[in-house]
From TrEMBL:
UniProt keywords, alphabetically: ATP-binding, Nucleotide-binding, Transport
Species this protein is from: Granulicella aggregans
Upper lineage: Bacteria, Pseudomonadati, Acidobacteriota, Terriglobia, Terriglobales
Molecular function GO labels: ATP binding; ATP hydrolysis activity
Domain of life assignment: Bacteria
InterPro entries: AAA+_ATPase, ABC_transporter-like_ATP-bd, ABC_transporter-like_CS, Metal_Ion_Import_ABC, P-loop_NTPase
Record domain ABC transporter: where: 10-250
The protein's name: Iron complex transport system ATP-binding protein
């Protein structure tokens, strides 16, 4: 990859991925720079989540001539080390072990990629200082001592973003982040992500909700049937005609306050 490595978060070349007997990603070529703000858009089942799992090394590409995967300039990673550099926020709400700990401790688990603070994990004073800093950054200091299981879905999502940020704030990978959130919580989430983007945090957002695409996101990828079918500027790709073709139905589109809304 040469001299671009220092600026490149992700480089995929000729990537095909199988889930079971079926190939679900086909000939994916993608380059994403550090600090870039990008949305990956497509209908359910188009391969968006498999793409995220490929980036996090939960799914492995088929070995074929010309295939290459590079993350932060490296082709091989210790998965524990990689998880500390990749801030991943899934659509799922926290699991049972996380529900019983405080917001502060939930953020700390991001240092260890664990679901809770198991007895064998050593938390340093530097980690505690960083966790407190992150809670302030995501405007969630009031959740420091609140048990995760007693939080609203929106509060839990904020804490999970803090957990993703605590180890490294280089890139956030968000998989359908507004799922299970009511309208108020969706707005709070978008405001939070806008602030992070404006501060320089890179964002890769996987969604099929057009309203999730922040004003700070200027690049859009469209996926259909496991392929990237379009990659370009948001202003060029977010049109009623393009979206109708992507989702296979007539789509109406309106822009207001730099957000796009579809129906």
């Amino acid at each position: 990859m040469g001299p671009l490595d220092a600026e490149t978060f992700l480089s995929l070349e000729n990537v095909n991925v199988a889930r079971g007997e079926n190939v679900v990603l086909h000939d994916v070529n993608l380059s994403v720079k550090k600090g870039e703000h990008i949305a990956i858009l497509g209908p359910n089942g188009c391969g968006k989540s498999t793409l995220i799992k490929t980036i996090t090394c939960e799914c492995y590409p088929l070995v074929k001539p010309g295939m290459k995967v590079s993350i932060f300039g490296r082709e091989r990673w210790d998965l524990t080390e990689l998880k500390k550099k990749l801030g991943v926020v899934s659509a799922e709400l926290p699991g049972r072990p996380t529900l019983g700990i405080t917001g502060f401790d939930a953020v700390l688990t991001g240092f260890f990629s664990s679901s809770t603070l198991w007895p064998n994990l050593k938390v340093t004073s530097e980690m505690r200082d960083r966790a407190a800093e992150v809670l302030k950054r995501i405007d969630s200091v009031e959740l420091t001592d609140k048990v995760v299981g007693e939080m609203s879905a929106g509060q839990q999502r904020r804490v999970m973003i803090g957990r993703a940020l605590v180890g490294s704030a280089d890139m956030l990978l968000l998989d359908e982040p507004s799922n299970a959130l009511d309208l108020s919580a969706q707005k709070d989430l978008r405001d939070l992500l806008r602030g992070l983007a404006q501060d320089g945090t890179g964002i890769m957002l996987i969604t099929h909700h057009i309203a999730d695409i922040l004003p700070e996101i200027d690049r859009v990828l469209m996926m259909r049937e496991g392929r990237i079918v379009a990659d370009g500027a948001k202003t060029e790709l977010l049109t009623a005609e393009r979206l109708s073709g992507l989702f296979g139905t007539n789509v109406g589109l309106v822009e207001r306050d730099e957000f796009y809304f579809a129906w």
